[in-house]
Amino acid sequence: MAQFTAALIPGLLALAALLGPAKGVDIYSALAEGALDRLKVLLRIFPALVGLLTAVYMLRASGLLDAVGQALSPVLHLLGIPQEVVALLVVRPVSGSAALGVGAELIEQYGPDSTIGRTAAVMLGSTETTFYTVAVYFGGAGVKRSRYAIPAALCADLTGFVVAAWAVRVMCN
User: Fold this and answer.
1) Which run of H or E residues covers position 99?
2) For residue 26, what is the DSSP state?
3) Which residue of 63, 72, 92, 139 could cross-link 99, Cys pair, CB 3.0 to 4.6 Å?
4) Phi, psi of 35 (to 5 degrees)
């Protein structure tokens, strides 16, 4: 099975390289056009990513995130959420890229096999970038009033955070 999965991506690329010219597709031009499109996306989201990461680092350096973590400590303890992941709880609904940065920092600081590292990883996989998703999908559909969508989505995120922490406690201890 491992040999199959190791050969899957190179095999698909080889298949595309063989079938593309047979169908009259200029593979190099298609690759260059796709790369250019992705670079445009990167340039569009890069300022927001830098701003969000800067804001998170400023909040952390100022001690505000620690103060929020301390203030929420009884509630977080009751919910089984490690206090160290407060930055992730704050950033994840806003930006997936910034949340990945915070998650990577938590994993680097505490280790991938620590309760905090595992909780951060599971939280990243079980929650959504709520505000980004609402903006993209509602904007694309022409919805002007989100009404209950954002509060419901934030409740779903909170549920994802709590269940992620619970799953790590149950499965890893």
Assistant:
1) helix 96-110
2) -
3) 92
4) -65, -40
DSSP secondary structure letter of residue 6: H
Which residue, among 149, 147, 139, 41, has the nearest Cα to 93 in the 3D structure? 149
The encoded tokens of residue 101 equal 């940065």
The rounded distance, in Å, linking the Cα atoms of 14 and 7 is 10
Neighbours of 123 (CB within 10 A): 27
What sign has the CA pseudo-torsion 8, 128, 51, 88?
negative
Mapping DSSP to helix (H, G, I), strand (E, B) and coil, where does residue 129 land?
coil
- Both tokens of 41, joined, read 């996306």
pLDDT in tens, 99-109: 888 899 999 99
